[in-house]
Amino acid sequence: MAEQTVRTKNVGLRGITVADTKISYIDGERGVLIYRGYRIEDLALRSTFPETAYLLLHEFLPSPEELQAFEAKLREFRALPGFVIEAMKAWPRGAHPMDALQASIPLLAMDDPDLGDESREANVTMALRLIARLPAVVGAWHRIRQGLDVLPPDDALSHAGNFLWQVLGKKPDEETARIMDVCLILHADHTFNASTFACREVVSTRAHMYAGVAAGVGALSGELHGGANARVMEMLQKIDRDGVTDIAAWVRDRLDRKERIMGMGHAVYKTLDPRARILKELAFQLGEKTGQTKWPEMTAAIEEAAMAELEKRGKKGIQPNVDFYSASVYHILGFPGDLMTCIFAVSRIAGWCAHIIEEKFAEAQGKPALYRPKAEYVGDYCGRMDCEYVPPEKRGRD
Ligand code: COA
């Protein structure tokens, strides 16, 4: 059968459906996000991150026994192999945490006894190791770069609580650990976003799960994707440092300079991102608890001014996305700006692994296929494709 050509160049594959998925669903017009049939609002209110990760990986919510076993495995896998910590100690202290995280993924692969076993069961176990260990990697690198000892995991703490402990070196109270837990639920999956697509594309070559995840971490690092939360915090801190009092004027000025308001707008949502609504509440809750409402208040003022100004300029539907208020939440929790995208990865690893498993065992989409889009060759050299090879010593530039 002749290959069908569909032309959608330079629009980032917008509007092109490339696979079926049973994992999550977004209605960008109505602001709906669903993980395997469950609304994000319900999961954020009533589930926990381990339970949500189980749901994403296994398609259904666990029984109490299944959840207990899943959490026990997560605890068992938390500790990092010694050679990973030793390798990190040799890395330049100034390395960005996302680079350190990405560099650690193949090292974790080398330690995984299931690597090479391409059964579904082995992939699920690899996913559990990744979910358990990414928080420990972020914590280890943050401590090492400050010249501090790496902290051992604490089995008495929840997944989110232990993450806070291993990174920040302080055991959180229940409310704080729960806020972290909800943040992890909210970021855990989001259909075919850039990093998830990167994961799926890589494993469509039959590469292993860790190769896919390394690609996902790289894709997430960009400021148009996961890197936006760090940029939101930079924006807030600059406003604070500069003593800006007229936020509306600040917004107008930024838009006049054709700069974007970080944390607003979304490729899919043309209304309020449902996660942003929950994160806004969490930011104010945490702000009140710690006496730091200044950050969510400033964010809310930007939201109001930017929406009004963008609307005036004929740009409708540009509203806060997941990164807008998460920046305040993470800052108040004590995370430095350059760790914020790592937090996203610590959560999204659950979705990445679920998608990798779906891609590899794609009952939902029939036979898995190697992704291979086309590009139109628009090179314009020597009449398109007739360049004559000239040896180096005879080459001139005219
Ligand atoms: N601030 C100001 N203007 C924005 C904007 C923002 N946050 N987001 C989009 N726009 C404007 C663009 O400048 C563009 O205007 P133009 O047509 O005059 O050039 C128009 O809206 C469409 O933008 P485009 O980038 O083509 O739309 P998109 O749907 O692909 O945008 C994002 C999605 C996320 C890339 C974009 O909204 C953005 O850059 N947001 C800021 C970064 C961010 O928060 N990323 C995290 C996403 S979860």
Automatic annotation (TrEMBL):
The keyword Transferase appears for this protein: yes
SUPFAM superfamilies noted in UniProt: Citrate synthase
Domain of life: Bacteria
Positions in coiled-coil regions: none
Record's keyword annotation contains Transferase: yes
Protein name: Citrate synthase
Family according to the record: Belongs to the citrate synthase family.
Keyword line: Transferase
Pathway: Carbohydrate metabolism; tricarboxylic acid cycle; isocitrate from oxaloacetate: step 1/2
Reaction(s) this enzyme catalyzes, per UniProt: oxaloacetate + acetyl-CoA + H2O = citrate + CoA + H(+)
BP-aspect Gene Ontology terms: carbohydrate metabolic process; tricarboxylic acid cycle
InterPro entries noted in UniProt: Citrate_synth-like_lrg_a-sub (IPR016142), Citrate_synth-like_sm_a-sub (IPR016143), Citrate_synthase (IPR002020), Citrate_synthase_bac-typ (IPR024176), Citrate_synthase_sf (IPR036969)
Annotated active site: 266, 323
An example molecular function term from Gene Ontology annotations: citrate synthase activity
Gene3D superfamilies: Citrate Synthase, domain 1, Cytochrome P450-Terp, domain 2
